[in-house]
Amino acid sequence: MFTKDIISWMVQSTKSTKFYILVAAIAFSLAIPLVVGAPFLIHVLTLIALFTIYASSWNLLASSGQGSLGHAAFLGIGGFVSSLLAINLGIPPIIGIFIGGVFSAAIGFLIGLTCVRLKAWFLGMVTFGFAVIAETLVSQFDEVTHGILGFRTPLLVPSGLSFYYFAVLIATLSVFAIYFIMKSKIGLAFRAIHQNESESRMIGINTVKYKLYAFVISTFFAGLSGGLYAHFLRYISVSIFAAGNSFKPLMMSVIGGLGTIEGPIIGSIIIVAIDSLLPNIDKFLQPALSPLFPAVSFVGPPLRFLGLGVFLVIVVIFFPKGVSSLLHKIHNYFRAETKKANNIERK
Amino acid sequence: MIDLSTLILTLMWGAAIGCIYVLLATGLNLIFGVMKLVNFAHGELLMIGAYMGYSVCILLGVNAYIAVFFSMGIVALIGIAVERLCFRRVLGSDKLNEIFVSLGLILIFDNVAVLLWGGKSKRIISPFENMSLTLGEVSISYDWLIAVVFVIVILIALLFLIKKTKIGMAMRATSQKSQTSMLMGINIERIYIFTFALGAALAGAAGVLYGIIFPFNPYIGALPTIKAFAIIILGGLGSIPGAIIGGLLYGIAEQTAVISLGGIWRNAVAFSVLIIVLVLRPKGLFGEKGE
Questions:
Q1: Where are the beta strands (DSSP E) in chain A?
Q2: Which residue is closest to B89 within chain A, CA to CA?
Q3: Which chain A residue shows the shortest CA-CA distance from B264?
Q4: Where are the domains of chain B?
Q5: Are the beta carbons of A232 and A163 closer than 8 angstroms?
Q6: Which of A12, A230, B175, B277 could, after both became Cys, cross-link B33 (CB 3.0–4.6 A)?
Q7: Alpha helices (H) in chain B, listed in sequence order
């Protein structure tokens, strides 16, 4: 029954353009290190792959109408569980990251239980609060977690190109899994709940159950990406719970396109590129702008965050469906044009 | 274990911190009640208010407590701009959009503050620096007492505005049923602007009082927002007396936790209170109507 479902999904989804775009994106991501070999760029590309998983997991939760503001909690739990297991029990990180994901999903289930009755901002507050509580607990039990100073995490796969391919593999699998979930009846229920919870309850959707599903699946992938992130950076501390890490997947999903499968990918490319590549132009900005802002020693970072904030507000106000909706518009425009051309030829 | 003077001090500190939170929470509650909008960037208005107070003190050389009024005016103007340019456009669309716009605003405000004032901690120097009232073993700084008095005066003025004036009546009508009040000839867009400006002004006042008591930097905004939230939820949505009682209770609970459990628990306690209240009584302790 279940396998039949999966097969029917696969057959159905191969008919859509999106599927081919995804395949092309994977091929592109596999080929790109052959073109640009600089270690720094590989580092950036790996970060994009990691944040794709993380942002997709957030996006899945948001597609059920639950906007988490504390996803860093699950990122951190995944990272800490996987790294601590590897250090204390010698469990190989390649298994550890999945254990971290499962552990994070278990915590996510408990948080989800408290959150299912809450809406929009209450949920945001509680999840944000949970990230702060997680940070406090990890600092409190420092003898176990070594979180305050942080510690060096063991190697997952050799860093550099092989880590990149490993990250792309996990990211692809995760994105596909999330894609199939979003395409399935579960995903339909998520969207129904997002649009109108009481009506979807009326037509027989068990909203509590589906909201919990969303929480568990999303936190599993968040924990998985957390494990990968910790082993990628080779270092983990309580700073992983910072609010910035909670807001990143949100910004990525919203800028890319909320509730779409390609949105988090586009968003993570944009945000990680801004984060990692723009510091290079700081050298040129600094002499030009520092006389204007005498109070700050480095003009670059605050300007960048300011730009991101403005960008986020503009996207939400003017393109509520994100950058990917622009791409859709362009795609539709060209399709309409070719149709027109074909019709003229036929006449 | 805890002697009497520590207890009194804890209560006093809690009440004073609570008072600042009450101002913030009342503003947030007002905006929520009338516009059904949650401004997550409200704490950023507090932070901007603190910096405005700081700059006014330095540039004009006025008394820190007079700067409160300057700051209220400036932050109200900023609030109007924010409402017109950002929130107006997403009002009534998906609730998540309001959260996203608020987060964008948090980034904007924080980094504008960094660019203008730098990232280092600042403090507003009050005229009563280092002076305190001594009662037996307990000594209470004048600044704390003045903060409490200020908050009480502002809240009384606010209650008068809401209960006795025409625009207050229009605000209450809009908060009950915005469409019907539109039919009754109330310009609800103007009410929205006024409400947001009022809420922002309260945050501005809270900011200066905060800046007199604590050192501040551009990143202090986030936690007070969430504490204000916890207070609103504790006191019941849309209820101003609830927010006042909730704020005082909350401030005292926080101080007690800091003294008995240690400083790192300060923020975790806020959220534990929030989560417990939300799970047990989603409508708040004193709330009548809820989401």
A1: 151-152, 235-236
A2: A317
A3: A136
A4: 4-280
A5: yes
A6: B175
A7: 4-35, 42-60, 64-82, 88-90, 95-117, 142-164, 166-176, 178-183, 188-213, 222-235, 240-261, 265-280
Q: Which residues pair with B138 in a beta bridge?
A: B135
For residue A151, the cross-strand partners are A236
pLDDT above 80 for B274: no
Q: By three-state DSSP, how is residue A323 classified?
A: helix
**Count of Cβ atoms closer than 10 Å to residue A265 Cβ:** 29
Sign of CA dihedral B40, B21, B235, B69: negative
**Per-residue model confidence (pLDDT) at position B197:** 92
pLDDT, tens digit (0-9, with 9 covering 90-100), for A116-168? 777 767 788 788 888 888 888 888 887 777 777 777 877 777 777 788 888 88
Residue B105 near chain A (CB below 8 Å): yes
Q: Where are the domains of chain A?
A: 16-278+295-346
Nearest-by-CA chain B residue for A138? B264
Q: CB–CB of B50/B2 below 8 Å?
A: no
Contact B101, A251 (CB under 8 A): no
Please report how the helices B240-261 and B265-280 are oriented relative to each other, as an axis angle in degrees rounded to 10.
Answer: 130
Considering only the C-alpha atoms of chain B, give the largest distance between any 2 of them, rounded to a whole number of Å.
Answer: 62
Pick the CATH number of A16-278+295-346 from 1.20.1740, 1.20.120, 1.10.3470, 3.30.700: 1.10.3470
Helix A120-140 and helix B222-235, axial crossing angle in degrees, nearest 10: 120
The answer to whether residue B290 scores a pLDDT higher than 60 is: no
Q: What does the mean pLDDT of chain A come to?
A: 82
CATH number for the domain whose boundaries are B4-280: 1.10.3470
**C-alpha angle A227-A230-A235 in degrees, rounded to nearest 5:** 155
Residue A255 distance to chain B (closest CA, Å): 10
* B105: chain A residues, CB-CB within 8 Å: 309, 313
Q: Is the pLDDT of residue B167 over 60?
A: yes
Handedness of CA B123, B127, B131, B134 (dihedral sign): negative
Give the ipTM of the model, two decimals please: 0.82
A chain contacts of residue B38, beta-carbon cutoff 8 Å: 120-121
pLDDT category, B76, cuts 50, 70, 90?
very high
Q: Do B40 and A117 touch (CB under 8 A)?
A: no
CB contact under 8 A, A67 and B119: no
Say yes or no to pLDDT of B1 above 60: no
Residue B30's nearest CA partner among B217, B211, B159, B214 is B159
Q: Are A269 and A48 in contact (CB under 8 A)?
A: yes
